[in-house]
């Protein structure tokens, strides 16, 4: 069955860093409104805005203190309504971020739960008695330290999978679930097109809350299998869909770490919980786990390719996927995936872009990816804002790494790499704001920025525009959106190639994801897009130059 959301190209905005309309150093909703013409020119059809709700902002909005109000730093609910209307006039839909695994500790529910132990709100969260005078168990939080925080003046702890200012909501409580559903429906009634759903696989906890053997010097354990995608989550997610999304013609994109390929059917199959999910298995190729940055892997292009293909094949069997190479939790793709630093530029950027844009699924682009933004290496830990960067820095050192090594891990992986202000032009603060931004601008903004790429036909920005318009409006549209994908395994190791098969044509993507010259046998074809000026074809064998990438049609 075809669905409208399969046709979208989605642009992710980190509102704090996108565009500051009132010059206070913090991006805002009206800043997004100002840039709608830019987004329309880029060709995207939907925007996902990271959380803009009332929040103390310790995790930049992933800590919500009022789900039905806007953080004044970002504007007002009227600004958002105007944005929704104006975007619609340009053919752009808006989805918001739904963060319901936890709230902020400043949410009135939690405040009431603390103040009044006999109130019903106690059971909206997860409170547990100490175990022999210590926290209830030894589980480690994703942002560091124990998942348990002691309540002041009481012999009791509350659970937080993330920071201690992000207490987990207790989905076992039906009344809490109903409050969440009515909040979701309230937003959908406002005319948003749907939600990206944060950390949703964490909402079911193993109810025995038992300790496990420690895996670090802190005597704690990263125990995702106790808190992620647990048996019983299915009832919660079915009910969630039934009571909310199913009543609307909306799109839902689940952030679903911990879901194995065999379980994709439950999540995105015909009767699945969501329209699509993000698969992190290939995105986290450089580390053993997304939260332990000092456990780095020695990955190869072939491993990356195999994971990517496995993911595509598993998704194709049952449903639809959300394809991405960057987001607000990942480093910049060029810095992470382009191994040769001298190609962390137009060539590396365009090779990655072409490689993922034509996979089967809905492509997501993260702000700045389209101009080839790179990581921003910092000298001191004080320059970081992200709580998980600070935690990883100190944890690396407690595990025996030196200060320099710890800083290096954080520079490679910090979530601040993609959170630096958007680089619009060469003016002070990169045109993001006239006031010093909340987070330092990447020093390369005079080289990498939107203004300098706008009118340059050879720029990465214009290459992205071409890729997106080819997917949206060319004669190959149907094949590129709905066609089957068949990976090509039989190539040299650094080549990523796949077919997209439509009813009347077969297209092929070929990408040399390395700086070594290589070659590939190929049948007769017509070129559609190439990131070099021409394709070097010598009677059935093409020569692939460093990071050369193409979309061709087989004759
Ligand atoms: C990834 C989220 C991340 C949030 C976290 C807590 O897991 O996108 O940015 O910090 O989920 O809400």
From TrEMBL:
This is Alpha-glucosidase. Residues 12-419 form the Glycosyl hydrolase family 13 catalytic domain. InterPro entries: GH (IPR017853), GH13_cat_dom (IPR006047), Glyco_hydro_b (IPR013780), O16G_dom_2 (IPR045857). CDD domains: AmyAc_SI_OligoGlu_DGase (cd11333). Pfam families: Alpha-amylase. Coiled coil: none annotated. The keyword Cell membrane does not apply. The keyword Nucleus does not apply. Keywords: Glycosidase, Hydrolase.
């Amino acid at each position: 069955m075809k669905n409208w959301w399969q046709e979208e190209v989605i642009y992710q905005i980190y509102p704090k860093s996108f565009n500051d309309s009132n010059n206070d150093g913090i991006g805002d909703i009206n800043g997004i409104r100002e840039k709608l013409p830019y987004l329309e020119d880029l060709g995207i059809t939907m925007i996902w805005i990271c959380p803009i709700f009332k929040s103390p902002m310790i995790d930049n909005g992933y800590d919500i203190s009022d789900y039905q109000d806007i953080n004044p730093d970002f504007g007002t609910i009227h600004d958002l309504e105007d944005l929704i209307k104006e975007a619609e006039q340009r053919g752009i839909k808006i989805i918001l971020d739904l963060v319901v695994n936890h709230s902020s500790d400043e949410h009135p529910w939690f405040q009431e739960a603390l103040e009044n132990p006999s109130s019903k709100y106690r059971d909206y969260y997860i409170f547990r008695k100490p175990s022999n005078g210590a926290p209830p168990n030894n589980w480690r939080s994703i942002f560091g330290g124990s998942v348990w925080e002691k309540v002041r003046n009481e012999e009791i702890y509350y659970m937080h999978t993330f920071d201690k200012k992000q207490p987990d909501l207790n989905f076992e409580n039906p009344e809490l679930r109903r409050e969440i559903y009515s909040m979701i429906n309230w937003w959908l009634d406002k005319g948003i097109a749907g939600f990206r759903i944060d950390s949703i696989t964490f909402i079911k906890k193993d109810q025995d809350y038992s300790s496990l053997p420690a895996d670090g010097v802190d005597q704690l354990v990263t125990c995702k299998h106790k808190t992620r995608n647990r048996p019983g989550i299915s009832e919660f997610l079915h009910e969630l869909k039934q009571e909310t999304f199913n009543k609307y013609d909306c799109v839902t994109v689940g952030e679903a770490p911990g879901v194995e390929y065999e379980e994709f059917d439950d999540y995105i199959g015909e009767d699945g919980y969501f329209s699509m999910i993000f698969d992190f298995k290939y995105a986290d190729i450089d580390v053993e786990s997304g939260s332990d940055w000092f456990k780095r892997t020695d990955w190869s292009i072939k491993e990356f390719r195999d994971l990517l293909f496995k993911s595509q094949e598993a998704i194709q069997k049952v449903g639809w996927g959300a394809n991405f190479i960057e987001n607000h939790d990942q480093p910049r793709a060029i810095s992470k995936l382009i191994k040769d630093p001298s190609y962390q530029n137009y060539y590396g950027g365009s090779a990655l872009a072409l490689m993922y844009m034509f996979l089967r699924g809905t492509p997501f682009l993260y702000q700045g990816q389209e101009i080839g933004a790179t990581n921003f290496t910092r000298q001191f830990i004080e320059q970081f804002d992200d709580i998980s960067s600070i935690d990883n820095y100190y944890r690396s050192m407690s595990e025996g790494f030196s200060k320099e090594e710890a800083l290096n891990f954080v520079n490679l992986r910090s979530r601040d790499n993609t959170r630096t202000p958007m680089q619009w032009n060469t003016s002070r603060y990169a045109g993001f704001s006239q006031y010093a931004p909340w987070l330092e601008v990447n020093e390369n903004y005079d080289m990498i920025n939107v203004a300098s790429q706008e009118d340059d036909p050879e720029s990465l920005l214009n290459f992205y525009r071409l890729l997106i318009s080819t997917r949206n409006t060319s004669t190959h549209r149907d094949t590129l959106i709905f066609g089957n994908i068949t990976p090509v395994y039989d190539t040299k190791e650094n080549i990523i190639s796949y077919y997209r098969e439509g009813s009347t044509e077969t297209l092929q993507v070929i990408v040399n994801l390395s700086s070594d010259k290589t070659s590939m046998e190929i049948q007769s074809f017509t070129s559609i897009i190439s990131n070099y000026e021409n394709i070097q074809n010598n009677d059935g064998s093409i020569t692939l130059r460093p990071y050369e990438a193409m979309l061709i049609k087989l004759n």
